[in-house]
Specification:
The complex is a heterodimer of chains A (272) and B (266). Chain A is built from six helices and nine strands, in the order βββαββαααβαβββα. By secondary structure, chain A is an alpha/beta fold. In chain A, the strands form two sheets. Chain A has a six-stranded mixed β-sheet with strand order 5-6-7-3-8-9, with helices on both faces. In chain A, strands 2-1-4 form a three-stranded antiparallel β-sheet, covered by helices on one side. In chain A, strand 8 and strand 9 form a beta hairpin. With 266 residues, chain B is mostly helical. Chain B contains ten helices and one strand, in the order βαααααααααα. In chain B, helix 2 packs antiparallel against helix 3 and helix 3 packs antiparallel against helix 5. Chain B is elongated, with a radius of gyration of 20 Å. The chains are: A alpha/beta (272), B mainly alpha (266). At the A-B interface, helix 1, strand 4 and helix 2 of A face strand 1, helix 1 and helix 4 of B.
Chain lengths: 272, 266
């Protein structure tokens, strides 16, 4: 069973930013996000269209300091699940419990095209309730880390796809969330940014941040504590990989990552 | 920080729970309105159209109506009546389109902002504030275009009537955009409603039907004609126009609460 270190005290089991786990599996990280019995269907008003059942009683749990993957085929409902988990979409049935602050990096860069990058941070920082000083500090730190400092005064619509995605990710990180939900976060990243991204996630999990990453498939299972697979509206879980090679999502591999700084052996564009 | 639970069918917003460092409604509203206005002004085509369309419409209506026969029910020459009606239509329709696109164009980014901590009410007010600001500019430009060609008997009252027309259609645009958040379909609805409304409410044709009294532009048209041509401000029309605006606001609010958020799959 994964042994998840909690270095930062902010999300420990006794912290008020944790949910009462009732855990029987003995994991050390407090549950910070839990979805129970989530059901979702897209109904159609048209008699010619039958609508789509997407999620059918999904249970999901994310703990402080762990990184989980959520994989599934195209159209399996991954993005729908993530939107429900962050609160952007209503559930038909079931419940979602969140503890602490949630950061959401959607698959599409949902930003305002005609604002500059700097103004984008100001707006989302205001939404998070951050002070001007805190926004400026976080913006500069993230811009340097993800290498987009030179684009801070560019309008979002004038950024390349990769740089838009960097800003998209940075907006999710701006308020130092307790839970980070990332939907295909490294789409369009160059190799250096891809590595910087994983370095960043490692630092965050060491500080107690819970991270969930959605992808079509996971090429580096060793980076994940657990991997959920969404298929036919249901979610099944397997532990992350302690040393397996790249694999398709339906291959269940036991064990916890032992070498978190392992270099990826595939082109990042294949991951995206 | 406290745990937050949402369950089946409930509206879900602001999953970011409490703001980490507080932040007031006023600060968020100011940030929202400033961002939305910047977005509008940074599209040069928007600004050009805002400045160019009102004079074109006012003058176009006037010239087209110049050859219209003078019927006994008309209180002024057709060309002037055309310019007066063109002004109301320009101010109202531009504001309607602005309202529609304020709601539709960034609906998904707004959803993300809501997840990040903006309340739906703050989003609504910031969008509405932007509509009001830009609609006010639209009314001002339109009024200037009319004043250049027509002697206005009561300028302040006339400008007020144009603002009323703009606000009325700004809200209609928001209402259409909220209930039907699609650019093409929303625009089509607005085009047909505005054309129908303006044609019947303008007084160019003498329509005696109670239906005309409930059209959105009925009272703004009546007020504007009175102010421009007679220099009078009928109190009944003012009150009725404001009451209409109030009812429309309530409808917009109800539609926003009903339809905004919850989103669609992306």
């Amino acid at each position: 069973m994964p042994n998840i270190p909690i270095i930062s005290g902010r999300s420990g089991p006794d912290d008020e930013s944790s949910l009462d786990t009732g855990d029987s599996e003995g994991a050390s990280g407090a549950v910070v996000l839990r979805g129970t019995g989530i059901e979702k269907a897209y109904d159609s008003w048209s008699p010619l269209d039958s609508g789509v059942d997407v999620l059918d009683g999904v249970d999901v749990e994310i703990r402080a300091g762990e990184i989980v993957g959520i994989v599934g085929a195209n159209g399996s409902g991954k993005s729908t699940l993530m939107q429900i988990l962050v609160g952007a979409l209503d559930v038909d049935a079931g419940s979602v419990e969140r503890a602490g602050h949630v950061g959401w990096c959607p698959q599409e860069t949902l930003l305002y095209d005609r604002l500059t990058v700097e103004e984008t941070f100001d707006l989302f920082g205001a939404a998070y309730g951050l002070s001007d000083e805190a926004i400026a500090e976080a913006r500069d730190r993230l811009a340097e880390r993800l290498d987009f400092t030179q684009f801070l005064d560019y309008q979002v619509r004038h950024l390349s796809g990769g740089n838009r995605q960097k800003v998209n990710l940075a907006v999710a990180l701006l308020h130092d969330p307790d839970v980070l939900l990332l939907d295909e976060p490294y789409t369009g990243f160059d190799w250096e940014t891809y590595l910087a991204f994983w370095g960043l996630t490692e630092e965050l999990t060491e500080r107690g941040t819970a991270i969930a990453i959605i992808s079509h498939f996971v090429s580096e299972r060793e980076r994940f504590d657990r991997i959920y697979e969404l298929r036919d509206g249901d979610l099944s879980v397997s532990d992350g990989d302690a040393g397996a090679t790249d694999s398709e999502p339906d291959e269940t591999v036991e064990g916890r990552a032992t070498e978190r700084d392992h270099e990826p052996n595939t082109d990042p564009t294949e991951v995206a | 920080m406290s745990a937050e639970t949402t369950s089946g069918g409930s509206a879900v917003a602001g999953s970011g729970a409490d703001s980490p460092a507080g932040g007031t409604h006023r600060e968020r509203l100011a940030a929202g309105i400033a961002a939305h206005v910047r977005e509008f002004l940074r599209e040069p085509v928007h600004v050009v159209l805002l400045l160019a369309l009102p004079p074109l419409v006012v003058e176009g209506y006037g010239r087209a109506m110049a050859s219209f026969p003078e019927f006994p029910y008309m209180t002024t020459v057709p060309a002037t009546l055309g310019r007066v009606n063109g002004a109301v239509f320009a101010a109202a329709f531009l504001a309607g389109l602005i309202g529609l696109f304020q709601v539709v164009s960034a609906v998904q980014a707004d959803d993300r902002l809501a997840v990040c901590g903006f309340s739906r009410a703050e989003l609504f007010v910031s969008r509405l504030g932007t509509v009001l600001a830009v609609s006010g500019c639209s009314a001002l430009v339109t009024f200037g275009a009319l004043w250049w060609r027509v002697d206005v008997a009561a300028p302040l009252a006339a400008f007020g009537a144009l603002v009323l027309a703009a606000l009325t259609y700004g809200l209609i645009g928001v209402l259409v955009g909220t209930a039907l958040p699609r650019e093409l379909e929303g625009s089509l609805v607005l085009v047909f409603v505005a054309d129908f409304d303006d044609f019947l409410a303008s007084g160019i044709v003498d329509v005696d039907s109670p239906v005309v009294n409930v059209l959105p532009l009925h009272y703004p048209h009546a007020l504007f004609r009175s102010a421009v041509l007679d220099g009078t401000v009928p109190t009944d029309d003012v009150l009725a126009g404001l009451a209409y605006l109030g009812v429309l606001f309530a409808l917009v609010l109800a539609a926003y609460v009903r339809f905004a958020g919850g989103g669609e799959a992306t």
